[in-house]
Specification:
The chain is an alpha/beta fold and 556 residues long. It is 38% helix and 8% strand. It has 18 helices and 13 strands. Helix 1 (113-148) crosses helix 4 (233-239) and helix 8 (355-366) runs parallel beside helix 10.
Length: 556
């Protein structure tokens, strides 16, 4: 445009249509004529023209900034809307997070003049209670040592004379409850006999529960193997002929079920007690049950434990044992009730939380994250949908927390790309968009876990990983070199420099031995299933995927 004609109108008058309101618009029947007449264009010595391309399909609501797109992205992924489509992994939904926290103790802080005054008054009483607690614990421990002395045949029931000695420990347990402020315990209903119901199940609210059941029933309990090493406690539960279980070992769980069957079927053994929730809650909800108590098929006696309170929540939620003991010692009286029913007697809701959520909560707390309860995902539902174990979920949480979530617990695309060693490009953005189901430019841990599990549990995922390794290993020596990895990934993420390839190679080098074998490759993709689209170009380039194929099913 001529510099000395800036005041002239862009369109000539014959291209404008008069409006009664004084406004002018372009004539509807003249849309193909040039906007500027030839006499308004500057002369070009080289004949070059500037061409503007307008994409009317551009989504103006894209949550990402333009600098995340690479101008030189390869053509293979420019039109891809779902980078996991070749696995048959369509879009997924993420249920809204629940506002219920089943592990929250509601009186973590001492609030109110009444509570502070009560603590001051009860401090001398607390010291006396502590001394009595240690005294009765010592009596019970010594009696248990005597009862266990010389007993080698742990496979058969404890002899009667040894059980009579254990009555000293059981009475000591009742005095221990007294020192904690449980002067009387209200019981509703009567439990049926062992012949009618050899297995007892109960909700689990506090460490007081097993002390009460030890005194009341002297049962055989199912406990974690780690409890055996606890001072005093380990010795006492051995006298109860405890059934140890490693909740993360399928073989250990199977052996525990067999032991439950064996001991429940014999009247010579005491009742078997299980806490099917697998952990303590705050007593305001019932979380998902483990199945160990129900698989044997014996009649079950349900029992609930409740701790009514106004000022002091006695639940062993996200609170230390020492702090909880101090609060118990400084109460005039602590209330406890038992009843022979579960959800109806508790009058509480049921949730899909499980012990796995407590593991996630604990891990987030260990890493000093704000509001660690936001990282719970109702693991019973996740395990049912995707068959993801608790340890796998914790590994995914560690990966997510390394992305530096913001104060709301969300991760943005730069940190997401940094942790996964991805370069900003169209494919990387599509991977992030796949997780961002709410399309707000950030992802939560729930979305990250659901999306990763959704991909990893596709029937073709493992086959695709193995096929990708075979195509990356061009020399056939059963490991991938840095150059082979770079050549395999560049069609999906163009212009990777040597340092970026090295970072990605280090991610795949799970064994840290400077080479990526098949085990390293598959292990890395299991831990980072969102990286599998990096190799879809390799499969397509080798002719294993034709353009437009939506899955590997026919190829495999």
């Amino acid at each position: 445009m001529a510099e000395n004609d800036l005041g002239s109108p862009l369109l000539p008058s014959d291209r404008l249509r008069n409006q009664s309101n004084g406004k002018a618009v372009v004539a509807e029947d003249d849309l193909i004529s040039p906007l500027l007449p030839s006499d308004r264009l500057p002369s070009q010595s080289n004949g070059e023209q500037v061409i503007l391309t307008i994409d009317d399909q551009l989504n103006s609501d894209r949550p990402f900034n333009n600098h995340f797109l690479n101008d030189n992205d390869g053509d293979a992924h420019l039109q891809i809307h779902n980078p996991f489509e070749f696995l048959g992994a369509g879009s997924f939904t993420v249920p809204a997070p629940t506002t219920i926290d089943p592990f929250r103790n509601h009186t973590l802080r001492i609030e109110g003049i009444y509570e502070w005054l009560k603590i001051v008054i009860c401090l001398p009483i607390a010291l006396l209670r502590l001394l009595l607690f240690l005294l009765f614990l010592s009596f019970g421990f010594l009696a248990t040592k005597v009862a266990l002395y010389g007993w080698r045949d742990k496979h058969n029931p404890m002899p009667k004379w040894r059980c009579r000695i254990m009555w000293i420990t059981r009475i000591s347990a009742r005095f221990i409850l007294f020192t904690f402020g449980y002067h009387w315990i209200k019981r509703k209903g009567r439990p049926t006999s062992r012949q009618n119901a050899p297995i007892v199940v109960s909700n689990h609210v506090s460490y007081i529960d097993p002390i009460f059941f030890f005194y009341e029933l002297f049962p055989t309990i199912v406990a974690s193997e780690s409890h055996d090493s606890l001072p005093f406690v380990g010795t006492i539960i051995r006298a109860m002929q405890v059934i140890y279980v490693n909740r993360f070992s399928p073989s250990s769980r199977k052996l525990a079920v067999n032991e439950i069957k064996r001991k429940a079927s014999s009247d010579r053994f005491p009742r078997v007690l299980l806490f099917p929730e697998g952990t303590t809650t705050n007593g305001r909800v019932v979380i998902s049950f483990q199945l160990g108590a129900f698989i044997p098929g014996f009649p079950i006696q349900p029992v609930i434990v409740r701790y009514p309170h106004v000022h002091f929540d006695q639940s062993w939620g996200h609170i230390s044992v020492g702090r909880l003991m101090f609060r118990m010692f400084t109460q005039f009286h602590n209330f406890m009730e038992t009843s022979n029913a579960i959800a109806s007697a508790l009058n509480v809701v049921q949730t899909c939380h499980s012990y796995g959520d407590l593991m996630l909560l604990t891990r987030a707390s260990q890493l000093k994250k704000d509001q660690p309860s936001r990282y719970m995902v109702e693991m019973a539902r996740v395990e049912s949908l995707f068959h993801i174990g608790n340890l796998e979920a914790v590994d995914f949480l560690d990966k997510f927390l390394s992305m530096n979530p913001d104060s709301s617990g969300c991760v943005h695309i730069p940190d997401f790309l940094r942790v996964l060693r991805l370069k900003a490009c169209s494919l990387s953005e599509k991977i992030f968009e796949f997780l961002d189901v709410e399309k707000n430019g950030k992802i939560t841990f729930r979305q990250f876990l659901y999306g990763s599990a959704h991909v990893m549990r596709r029937p073709l995922f493992r086959q695709a990983c193995e096929l990708a390794f075979a195509k990356c290993d061009r020399t056939g020596n059963n490991y991938i070199s840095r150059n082979e990895l770079g050549d395999s990934v560049r069609p999906a993420i163009p212009n990777l420099n040597e340092d970026e390839v090295n970072e990605m190679y280090d991610l795949f080098d799970v064994g840290n031995d400077g080479r990526v074998d098949k085990e390293d490759f598959l292990s890395c993709l299991r831990k980072n299933p969102l990286l599998i689209p990096l190799f879809s170009s390799v499969l397509r380039r080798e002719g294993l995927l034709e353009d437009g194929d939506s899955s590997l099913e026919e190829t495999l």
